[in-house]
């Protein structure tokens, strides 16, 4: 029997596969498409996702093919300088087109032993107390202990589960694509700047090869949202907004997206779970979509691996929904606000100006930047100091640095006291003694996702927290 089947081979499914394979879980990724689309909806990683990649030893691969960027705010078309005092050793994002992100994660997943089957579409599922029977479009049947739907906003897995997806449908639509343009770059830049004085959903950005990534408001919302727009639609809307179609031709890909905002009522039904766009969809304002999905996988992977391995404490897998559902709800709220700010009417325009002034205040800029980048995410672990439930930034240690010790996806006890121990959990938790470590407490217990699960210096106080997150000790 397969341990985990992942439906969907995009960034979320591939990240989850990498996390599971760190724990030797047998993973099969089923991807409906026979080849990657090449479409680049996600344009990069925010600071928290940068940390995630560093925690797993992947950041160097991204930096080798990407440019760093450092933007604060980035809220509803408002851009501010990166604020001082952000609690991270990675105060930057990386501009990585989605196809590159997928390629890098697929390479890593294959290195770790993931089995990826392309051209395989899930059309049915039946689960029982021991596993999930998955039916494919070609009639093949597979059985696994768990199934995770990472198959996008129109998730087949979610629909087969009968999980509700409440929210709001699209009221506006934007055309997006990559294409060549014959008009000179200076004229295109001037026209874009003029339109963006009033319409921030309009843009045309060239890459190093002169290919333009173009976004333009559509004329209403298409009845068939799955149908790709035509080049003629792009030209017509460009002329309507800019008075010229820039001489666009030879499109690489064309797509459309709306402002639909929805969230799954449940992230888990028995042995079937949802992650990424299968669990939540929202407008791309703020560039959070790919990032929140990758972070879903980062939260879920070690917990699901613990269930497969048999050491998971009771309720551990349920903490995935308990922790990630509120995070997504906050992102949906944020993108609703941003779409309002992008409006062209006098009210949204005035509100955008007011918020822009407020974001000149350092504390406001820090708050909004932390919200967009997910650096301010705090899971509810009960009573304790403010840093409890937050991820710990990378810190230097006597030998290397913290994130270099998290590459294998295990728990980590970082100890300045010298009198603590993880005896009984050494198969799941590493112990590092460093009296010089820059910690918010004498010692901290980190989960495999880097969030602080306990802080203190009392061995008797530590033990129940080891048990809570890492199960019963070995004898």
Tag the structure with descriptive keywords.
23 strands, Glutaredoxin, 32% helix, Alpha-Beta Plaits, eight-stranded mixed beta sheet, 475 residues, four-stranded antiparallel beta sheet, FAD/NAD(P)-binding domain, 3 domains
Give the topology:
Layout (H helix, E strand, L loop, with lengths): L1 E6 L3 H11 L5 E5 L15 H9 L3 H7 L1 E3 L2 E4 L2 E3 L12 E3 L2 H14 L3 E4 L3 E6 L4 E5 L4 E9 L6 H6 L5 E2 L4 E9 L3 H11 L7 E4 L5 E6 L13 H12 L5 E11 L2 E3 L4 E2 L2 E3 L5 E2 L7 H21 L8 H24 L4 H13 L3 H12 L37 E5 L13 E5 L9 E4 L5 E5 L2 H12 L5
Parallel strand pairs: 1-2, 1-10, 2-7, 10-18, 20-21
Antiparallel strand pairs: 3-6, 4-5, 8-9, 9-10, 11-16, 12-14, 12-15, 13-14, 16-19, 17-18, 20-22, 22-23
Helix pairs in contact: 1-4, 1-8, 8-9
CATH superfamily of the largest domain: FAD/NAD(P)-binding domain
Proportion of strand residues: 15-25%
SS-derived structural category = alpha+beta
Fill in the CATH topology of the largest domain: FAD/NAD(P)-binding domain
Overall 3D form: globular
Could you tell me the number of beta strands?
Answer: 23
User: Mean of the pLDDT scores?
Assistant: 95
Q: How far is it from the N-terminal to the C-terminal residue, by CA?
A: 29 Å
- The radius of gyration is 23 Å
Summarize the amount of helix as a percent range. Answer: 25-40%
Number of helices: 12
The tally of structural domains comes to 3
Major β-sheet annotation: 8 strands, mixed
InterPro entries: FAD-bd (IPR002938), FAD/NAD-bd_sf (IPR036188), RIFMO-like (IPR050641)
Organism: Actinocorallia herbida
Cofactor: FAD
Protein name: 2-polyprenyl-6-methoxyphenol hydroxylase-like FAD-dependent oxidoreductase
């Amino acid at each position: 029997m397969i341990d985990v089947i992942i439906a969907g081979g995009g960034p979320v499914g591939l990240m989850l596969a990498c996390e599971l394979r760190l724990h030797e879980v047998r993973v099969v990724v089923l991807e409906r498409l026979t080849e990657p689309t090449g479409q680049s909806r996600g344009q990069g990683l925010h600071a928290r996702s940068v940390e995630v990649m560093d925690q797993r030893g992947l950041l160097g691969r991204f930096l080798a093919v990407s440019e760093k960027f450092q933007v604060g705010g980035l809220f509803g078309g408002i851009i501010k300088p990166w604020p001082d005092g952000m609690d991270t050793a990675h105060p930057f994002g990386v501009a990585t087109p989605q196809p590159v992100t997928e390629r890098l994660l697929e390479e890593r997943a294959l290195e770790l032993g993931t089995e990826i089957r392309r051209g395989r579409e899930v059309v049915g599922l039946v689960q029982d107390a021991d596993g999930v029977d998955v039916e494919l479009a070609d009639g093949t049947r597979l059985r696994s202990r768990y199934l995770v739907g990472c198959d996008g906003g129109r998730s087949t897995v979610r629909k087969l589960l009968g999980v509700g997806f409440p929210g709001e449908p699209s009221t506006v639509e934007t055309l997006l694509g990559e294409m060549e343009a014959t008009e000179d770059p200076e004229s295109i830049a001037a026209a874009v700047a003029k339109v963006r004085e009033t319409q921030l959903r309009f843009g045309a950005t060239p890459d190093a090869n002169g290919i333009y990534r173009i976004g333009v408001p559509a004329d209403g919302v298409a009845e068939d949202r799955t149908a790709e727009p035509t080049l003629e639609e792009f030209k017509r809307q460009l002329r309507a907004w800019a008075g010229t179609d820039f001489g666009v031709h030879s499109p690489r890909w064309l797509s459309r997206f709306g402002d639909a905002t929805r969230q799954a009522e449940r992230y888990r039904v028995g042995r079937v779970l949802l992650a990424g766009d299968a669990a939540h969809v929202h407008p791309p304002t703020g560039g959070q979509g790919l990032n929140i999905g990758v972070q879903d996988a980062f939260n879920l992977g070690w917990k699901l691996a613990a269930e497969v391995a048999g050491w998971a404490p009771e309720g551990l897998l349920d903490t995935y929904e308990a922790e990630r559902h509120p995070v997504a709800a906050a992102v949906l709220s944020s993108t609703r606000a941003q779409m309002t700010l992008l409006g062209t009417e006098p009210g949204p325009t005035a509100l955008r100006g007011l918020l822009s002034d407020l974001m000149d205040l350092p504390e406001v800029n820090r708050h909004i930047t932390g919200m967009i980048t997910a650096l301010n995410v705090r899971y509810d672990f009960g009573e304790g100091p403010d840093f409890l439930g937050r991820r710990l930034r990378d810190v230097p240690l006597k030998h290397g640095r913290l994130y270099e010790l998290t590459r294998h996806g295990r728990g980590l006890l970082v100890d300045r006291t010298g009198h603590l121990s993880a005896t009984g959990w050494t198969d799941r938790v590493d112990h590092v003694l460093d009296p010089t470590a820059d910690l918010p407490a004498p010692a901290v217990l980190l989960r495999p996702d880097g969030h602080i699960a306990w802080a203190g210096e009392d061995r008797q106080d530590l033990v129940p927290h080891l048990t809570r997150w890492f199960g019963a000790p070995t004898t």
